Amino acid sequence: MTTDLHEFVEFAPQAQFHMLERSGSFGHLEEPDAVFEHLRNSRT
User: Fold this and answer.
1) Cα–Cα distance between 28 and 17 in angstroms, integer?
2) Using an 8 Å Cβ cutoff, are 15 and 35 in contact?
């Protein structure tokens, strides 16, 4: 892990990482269904 990642984990230990494998810089536009699924699941 990089130093930045360690700092982020300390800042937001409850955060989750999800890789969008078929997207570039605009995952919310390129894979909106996957993004919204992750958002819906994170609220439960």
Assistant:
1) 15
2) no
Quick check: helix, strand or coil at residue 12?
coil
**φ/ψ of residue 29, rounded to 5:** -95, -35
State the average pLDDT over residues 3-13. 85
| Interatomic CA distance for residues 29 and 13, integer angstroms | 27
| Tens of pLDDT, residues 20-33 | 999 999 999 999 99
Burial per residue of 7-42, b for 16 or more beta-carbon CB atoms within 10 angstroms, e otherwise: eeeeeeeeeeeeeeeeeeeebeeebeebbeeeeeee
Amino acid identity of 20? L
